[in-house]
């Protein structure tokens, strides 16, 4: 099963990673890698996760993470990894 | 493992540079729907389309959501209806009934357009072909989602000038039949030369007889992405310019290839081709004209435009071909006027004429596309323009097309609103000198010498 990339972009604030990780833990999504940068006060995080253990339908997870992003005022995207590997790797 | 930079680059393309997959088009063969009874034919057609395309729209949405890339259109193309309806339809009115069935099937499957209300008459017309062609004005004015195309010539056969003459009249009649709606029917009617069997883009899409029972074709897009990439190489030489277009086209096409394979797998329908065409939309930043201007033209239409378009088209193909296992359809840059804000602006500032557009069609993927012309343009003049475009296609062994909209009641200086992806267009000047005697000769223009390769 292919991996999923979760990106979080927005104004830096306390607890962003905690909130996202809590959601993922509750839905049995395993986080395999996290990288993040803060550029001029803007928070930019990428997580590589494995959704194989989760019973949540993919589309639902995409929408719920988007809603969570709205709640904490950041943009959260959840996309299958293939879109990036296909585009950037031969 | 992908890096944060790569992820951000892709998402920036999608969010800010309007990268999308323009269409997933499901081609469906209707040859097995033929019947001598019109009701049975309509029933067969409706049943087959709604059965094969049942999950098309929902699958498209699923892919869109999971990969985070918009898939703007989900569409259907079918076998040219002149072939399918030949046995049951004895008059143009009978063909209109089939058009209505197609419209109903398109609506019930949730697609926004269905192409294939078509006839292939590059050498001659059967009675069924002629009846279908004569039914086009009524068919397009009584349906919403049906698109029609007629192939009137090819490099192998020459140009069927009887069909060219007839199509000039049909374009005018279609404009009249839909005059209450800015002659919108003509936006759904395209006259082609060298039409491909696997084109996923409307209005010229049909499912050719060389195709399998059902097939998934995908049209990519991304003028905004190319434009943005070129902003980074301002003032650099042509080698750098071409290389940048090629690399960017590769990335854009890979996204299309992924979507095509996913759609094919999930629907259980074989993957056909990816069409590499750069397709603009009327929104700002999604324009082919802007790419040409970014290359260094003050306005599209200025001297240098044809060369700029030629290199763009060629580099898009070179980048795209390596990114996809099967490339087909039209694959090049589209230069519709009403669907590209940069083109509209160029016409409005007097930089882009119909004649320059014709020159551009020698090196782009299609032809004179979505151009509004005065409502009183004679049918013979429209036929003359069709003949010119067909000649360019025939001689250069490429697809060319004409989608002109003679807007009834409007003249040069007026603007017409078509709405949505079809955009809006200033009515453009057409050469006022006649070509009636030329068009009225009738018969065929023979195939060019270089078509005899056997």
What keywords describe this structure?
heterodimer, A: 90 residues, alpha+beta, Alpha-Beta Plaits, four-stranded antiparallel beta sheet, 4 strands, globular, B: 454 residues, alpha/beta, Anaerobic Ribonucleotide-triphosphate Reductase Large Chain, eleven-stranded mixed beta sheet, 15 helices, 13 strands
Task: Give the arrangement of secondary structure elements.
The complex is a heterodimer of chains A (90) and B (454).
Chain A (H helix, E strand, L loop, with lengths): L3 E8 L4 H11 L3 E10 L2 E9 L7 H14 L2 E7 L1 H7 L2
Antiparallel strand pairs in A: 1-3, 1-4, 2-3
Chain B lengths: L3 H12 L5 E8 L9 H15 L3 H12 L3 E8 L2 H4 L7 H18 L4 E7 L6 H15 L4 E9 L3 E3 H17 L11 E5 L20 E7 L2 H9 L6 H30 L3 E5 L12 H7 L10 H19 L17 H8 L5 H7 L7 E7 L4 H18 L3 E8 L7 E3 L6 E3 L9 H4 L4 E2 L9
Parallel strand pairs in B: 1-2, 2-3, 3-4, 4-6, 7-8, 9-10
Antiparallel strand pairs in B: 1-7, 4-5, 5-13, 6-10, 11-12
Helix pairs in contact in B: 2-5, 3-9, 5-6, 6-7, 7-14, 8-9, 8-10, 9-11
In short:
Chain A is of the alpha+beta class. In chain A, 36% of the residues lie in helices and 38% in strands.
Describe the structure.
The complex is a heterodimer of chains A (90) and B (454). With 90 residues, chain A is α+β, with helices and mostly antiparallel strands. Chain A has one domain (4-88): ACT domain (Alpha-Beta Plaits), CATH 3.30.70. Chain A is 36% helix and 38% strand. Chain A has helices at 16-26, 58-71, 82-88, and strands spanning 4-11, 30-39, 42-50, 74-80. A 4-stranded antiparallel sheet of chain A has the order 2-3-1-4, sandwiched between helices. The longest helix of chain A is centred in the C-terminal third of the chain and has 14 residues, at 58-71. The model of chain A has no long low-confidence stretch (mean pLDDT 92). In chain B, 61% of the residues are buried. Chain B has a domain at 22-193: Anaerobic Ribonucleotide-triphosphate Reductase Large Chain (Alpha-Beta Barrel), CATH 3.20.70.20. The mean pLDDT of chain B is 95. The radius of gyration of chain B is 21 Å and the shape is globular.
């Amino acid at each position: 099963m292919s991996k999923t990339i979760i990106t979080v972009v927005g104004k830096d604030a306390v607890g962003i990673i905690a909130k996202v990780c809590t959601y993922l833990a509750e839905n049995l999504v395993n986080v395999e890698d996290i990288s993040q940068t803060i550029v001029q006060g803007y928070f930019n995080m990428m997580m590589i996760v494995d959704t194989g253990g989760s019973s949540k339908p993919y589309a639902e997870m995409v929408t719920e993470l988007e809603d969570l992003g709205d709640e904490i005022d950041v943009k959260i995207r959840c996309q299958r990894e293939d879109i990036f590997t296909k585009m950037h790797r031969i | 493992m992908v890096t944060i930079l790569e992820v951000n680059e892709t998402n920036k393309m999608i969010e800010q540079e309007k990268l999308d997959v323009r269409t997933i088009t499901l081609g469906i063969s209707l040859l097995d729907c033929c019947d001598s009874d019109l009701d049975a034919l309509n029933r067969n057609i409706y049943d087959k389309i709604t059965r094969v395309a049942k999950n098309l729209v929902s699958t498209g949405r699923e892919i869109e959501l999971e990969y985070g890339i918009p898939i703007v259109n989900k569409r259907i193309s079918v076998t040219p209806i002149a072939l399918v309806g030949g046995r049951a339809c004895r008059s143009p009115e009978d063909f209109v009934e089939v058009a209505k069935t197609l419209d109903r099937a398109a609506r019930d499957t949730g697609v926004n357009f269905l192409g294939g209300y078509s006839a292939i008459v590059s050498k001659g017309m059967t009675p069924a072909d002629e009846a279908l062609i004569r039914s086009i004005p009524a068919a397009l004015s009584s349906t919403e989602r049906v698109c029609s195309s007629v192939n009137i010539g090819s490099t192998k056969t020459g140009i069927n000038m009887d069909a060219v003459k007839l199509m000039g009249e049909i374009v005018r009649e279609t404009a009249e039949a839909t005059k209450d709606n800015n002659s919108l029917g003509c936006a759904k009617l395209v006259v082609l030369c060298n039409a491909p069997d696997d084109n996923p883009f409307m209005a010229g899409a049909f499912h050719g007889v060389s195709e399998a029972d059902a097939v998934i074709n995908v049209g990519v897009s991304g003028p905004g992405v190319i434009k943005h990439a070129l902003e980074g190489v301002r003032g650099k030489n042509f080698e750098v310019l071409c290389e940048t277009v090629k690399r960017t086209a590769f990335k854009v096409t890979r996204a299309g290839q992924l979507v095509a394979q996913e759609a094919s797998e999930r629907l259980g329908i074989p993957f056909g081709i990816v069409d590499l065409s750069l397709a603009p939309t009327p929104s700002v930043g999604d324009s082919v004209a802007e790419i040409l201007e970014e290359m260094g033209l003050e306005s599209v239409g200025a001297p240098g435009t044809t060369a700029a378009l030629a290199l763009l088209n060629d580099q898009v193909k070179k980048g795209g071909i390596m990114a996809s296992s099967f490339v087909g359809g039209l694959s090049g840059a589209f230069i519709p006027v009403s669907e590209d804000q940069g083109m509209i602006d160029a016409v409005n500032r007097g930089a882009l004429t119909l004649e320059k557009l014709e020159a551009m069609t020698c090196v782009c993927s299609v032809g004179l596309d979505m151009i509004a012309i005065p409502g009183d343009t004679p049918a013979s003049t429209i036929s003359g323009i069709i003949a010119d475009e067909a000649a360019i296609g025939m001689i250069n062994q490429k697809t060319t097309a004409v989608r002109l909209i003679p807007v009834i009641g409007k003249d040069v200086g007026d603007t017409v609103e078509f709405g949505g992806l079809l955009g809006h267009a200033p009515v453009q000047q057409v050469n006022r000198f006649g070509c009636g005697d030329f068009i009225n000769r009738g018969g065929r223009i023979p195939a060019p010498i270089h078509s005899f390769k056997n």
